[in-house]
Design brief:
DNA polymerase, domain 1; 417 residues; five-stranded antiparallel β-sheet; MutS, DNA mismatch repair protein, domain I; alpha+beta; Alpha-Beta Plaits
Length: 417
């Protein structure tokens, strides 16, 4: 069966929303979305196309913007962006069923339009234009689209080809992909090839997709393992996964995780306070979802990559969602593996191999009644937080120096709501 997919991206989404809200044109307005309270070192979440035309890099830090450029600073409003994203999703639903939509991010989505072209009597280009025009006419947001005969080609058509099209729409099939993009550089422009993979390929004297497609596959498998299969398929423009496959997918194992970039470099003890907050947040999430875990994961990243990350996994003696039991295990792992002489900038906690609460088994070495009392207490804390907000009930540690939970409870996706 021959598929036709759209990949739609809302151009410079956050910055465009802020311009629309102010009645400004993002293509003629200098505007950056950044939290000015975090100082000049804060990252710009988005900049307008006009700023890009002036040579400002996307995701730059405020201090990197040339001093001669005058611009508006818009404070991030994540709830507003989520609202716009939901409204755009409603536009997609006017044209295709939800079963044929895969939301990739807050500003990007894939649409399977295979069975709708005949219904609307449209070519793929005409249907893409119809949807993009609807988005612009309804909300004033400019979108770009890629049309492809598989999900990968639709994404690449949007990321690379559409940028050079007056209509903001690009099209690729396997033949066009090989003709137009086999020698495109840099490789990091391609979906799922980051700088690290690009550097590893360069050391193998592989510089473009043509090189990947014509390299001895054994070399690639030796370097990248099973991931070489994806590289090889994408080098030829192949992708077998469909939106239907994505909808049907169920992971073999589940996890609950949380990562945090600290506001500044933290010493060992100060970061330990944040870790305790993160464990509490994870424990409450497990309790709320009636899940338990028997494996934990810790990640500690250091300031300016002064040394490699530390942490690791630890298998528990039983399935649990008890805050006290989980905290004891995390602190033990943290104390054993963390470098006390290097400042810390990133923390991550993971609760792996989670399952339903019925996984809990009686254990003669644990105080079952005490654990049940703690579970009921945490369920009560959860209920209070859901009804009255996350900061409606706090622990003493949330007021210690370096604690971040009280502030982060007011954020959406790490930014102001």
């Amino acid at each position: 069966m021959s598929y036709v997919y759209l990949c739609i991206d809302l151009k410079t989404f956050y910055a465009s929303v802020e311009c629309v809200e102010r009645g400004l044109d993002p293509f003629t307005t200098n505007l950056v979305v950044a939290d000015s309270s975090r100082g000049k070192g804060t990252i710009c979440l988005a900049i307008t196309p006009k700023m890009k035309m002036l040579g400002v890099k996307n995701r730059c830090r405020v201090y990197q913007i040339p001093p001669g450029i005058k611009y508006i600073v818009a404070e991030p409003r994540m709830n507003k962006y989520i609202e716009y994203s939901a409204n755009i999703y409603e536009i997609y639903l006017k044209y295709v069923s939800k079963e044929d939509i895969h939301v990739y991010s807050v500003d990007e989505a894939f649409l399977d339009i295979t069975h709708y072209l005949h219904l609307y009597n449209k070519t793929p280009l005409e249907m893409a234009k119809m949807i993009l025009d609807d988005i612009y006419n309804t909300y004033g947001l400019t979108a770009t689209a890629g049309i492809g005969t598989n999900l990968y080609l639709a994404k690449i058509a949007m990321d690379i080809v559409a940028k050079h099209s007056p209509s903001n729409i690009g099209f690729l099939n396997e033949k066009l992909y090989q003709e137009k993009l086999w020698h495109h550089k840099p490789l990091s422009d391609f979906w799922q090839i980051g700088r690290g993979i690009e550097n590893r390929l360069r050391r193998m004297y592989i510089f473009d997709m043509y090189d990947i497609a014509h390299t001895d596959e054994k070399r690639l498998y030796k370097q990248f393992g099973i991931n070489a299969e994806l590289l090889i398929d994408h080098a030829w423009g192949r992708e077998n996964c469909t939106i239907a496959d994505i909808k049907k997918y169920k992971p073999k194992s589940n996890s609950v995780s949380n990562t945090q970039v600290l506001f500044e470099d933290y010493p060992f003890e100060k970061a330990r306070v944040v870790l305790k907050e993160m464990v509490e947040n994870g424990s409450l999430t497990l309790t709320q979802k009636k899940l338990v875990t028997d494996t934990i994961y810790l990640y500690v990243g250091y300031s300016k990559d002064q040394r490699g990350a530390t942490g690791g996994r630890k298998k528990l003696e039983k399935f649990t969602n008890s805050y006290q039991l989980l905290l004891e295990c995390f602190l033990d792992l943290y104390d054993q593996t963390t470098d006390r002489n290097v400042m810390i900038r990133r923390l991550g906690v993971g609760f792996l191999d989670v399952g339903e609460e019925e996984f809990i088994q009686m254990n003669m070495f644990y105080d079952v009644e005490k654990e049940e009392r703690e579970r009921k207490l945490e369920e009560t804390i959860n209920l209070i937080k859901v009804q009255n907000g996350k900061n409606s009930i706090l622990r003493g540690m949330n007021f210690e120096e370096g604690a971040t939970a009280k502030l982060r409870n007011t954020l959406v996706g790490g930014h102001k709501g």
